[in-house]
Amino acid sequence: MQTTNKTETKLSTLKTHLTQINDLEAAASLLYWDQATYMPPGGASARGRQLATLQAISHTKFTDPSVGQLLEDLRSYEETLPYDSDEASLIRVTRRKYERAVWVPASFMAQLSRHRAEAYEFWVKARSENNFALVQPYLEKTLEMSCELASFFPGYEHIADPLIDFADYGMKTSFLRTLFAELRQQLVPIVEAITAQPTADNSCLHQFYPENRQLEFTIKLIKQLGYDFQRGRQDQTHHPFMINFSTGDVRITTRVYENELGQALFSTIHEMGHALYEQGINSDFEGTPLAGGTSSGIHESQSRLWENLVGRSRSFWQFFYPQLQAFFPTQLKDVSLDKFYRAINKVGRTLIRTDSDEVTYNLHVMLRFDLELQMLEGSLEVKDLPEAWRERYRHDLGIVPETDSEGVLQDVHWYSGQIGGMFQCYTLGNLISAQFFEAAVEEHPEIITKIEQGNFYTLHNWLKEKIYQHGCKYTAAELIRGVTGDTLRIAPFIRYIKQKYGQLYQL
Ligand code: ZN
Fold first, then answer.
1. Backbone φ, ψ for residue 444 (5° rounding)
2. Which residues is 296 bridged to in the sheet?
3. Containing H/E element for 234?
4. Using the 8-state DSSP alphabet, how is residue 507 labeled?
5. Which tens digit of pLDDT belongs to each residue from 340-375?
6. pTM (global) more than 0.90
7. Distance of CA 270 from the midpoint of ligand 1 (Å)
8. Sheet of 234-236, strand order
9. Cβ(229)–Cβ(223) under 8 Å?
10. N or C: which end of the chain has fewer CB atoms below 10 A?
11. What span, in angstroms and rounded, lies between the C-alpha atoms of 408 and 337?
12. Calpha distance 56→493 (Å, rounded)
């Protein structure tokens, strides 16, 4: 009896400690949300300092040796519990995060966060002035620090592995290389067949659509899709994101371009997909490390599932297009559903990853992944990166950026302080989204007709039950196995692309 009581006390001490850390992190997140939405420019430097202070306190609290001791003391108790019990999962996931956090010296983390802020600032300037040289020394330092960060995790197979592990736990470079090579091989002929045809006309999306009407429509849309406004809200920002402070407060942001309807529509649905995941997590996990998506790839699978497999489908617009037309009668009264559907699924060889279509998107991602590996391996120097970028675009997409702003400077990722592990999640997300959606439709074939009727409950409930509620109890690999009975596969994504675009482009 005494042992049980002792164990209970230790578990409750651990939980209390973790909740305090969670609260500090939530406070930091709220400061960040404010910074990205409503904060006046004058708040910037103090806000940076405030965020750093909160992050340092929560890092110190989490890496306290007493946490390691509690986890060690609870090991034998954990071994008596079923693997997927809430308590065993809490101890296991906390231990994984703790070990990762203590391996990196606090002094390095502080140095890295200072460097991150500086590199970001120079990237903003370099991008607006189209001047890679301005940010080159910072990127060189980032590469050096990324290698150093990886070196704190001994025994890796490839130097990128520990960096990939931060975002997509359990994924390895060797696995991803093989997966991506196969995907590229299957995608390239599809892209060639589509781009050999006349390009789709998407001019209907590029008329004037007033900002307030667009915002109203996105809110109406996501309410019907199942986003809970009692536990969330939508605001505007430059680079849309989802952020949560608890399972009861999961916010999204969007951006509106008055001459480009697709921006607000699809970035809203995308971020809502991330938010449905977080809103669907078991509320018993509140305040613990289990309350969050399990990996970047799985998170991205949820946003892409709603954005693309649902939000860019014909079934979806069969239901919503009359509502959209009623919102924008002058712009859309003469545009048929078919024309609109083709417009939102226009495929083309383009330069900007975030604006690219479903078919070419992964080519953008995979070339970044390869360039990251080359830099980490030492076979590509930062000074040669812009040329390597142009070469890969010429080779993979048959198009070359005229400026670095439209090329190597377009994405924030490398300039926000890390090279390695930054891009794989997007392609993983696309692949997993198709694999999950296929599994959902196989189990509930009526999902498609329900979507046509504007009923999203069947799909949403399936996702809640199979994926959302578990938070990060299961790893990505365990979740994929549990949901689909299989490992990660390329085939469902290729089947989806061939079926949809085969119809659109009469392939
Ligand atoms: Zn996303």
1. -130, 80
2. none
3. strand 234-236
4. -
5. 999 999 999 999 999 999 999 999 999 999 999 999
6. yes
7. 6
8. 234-236, 249-254, 242-246
9. yes
10. N
11. 37
12. 41
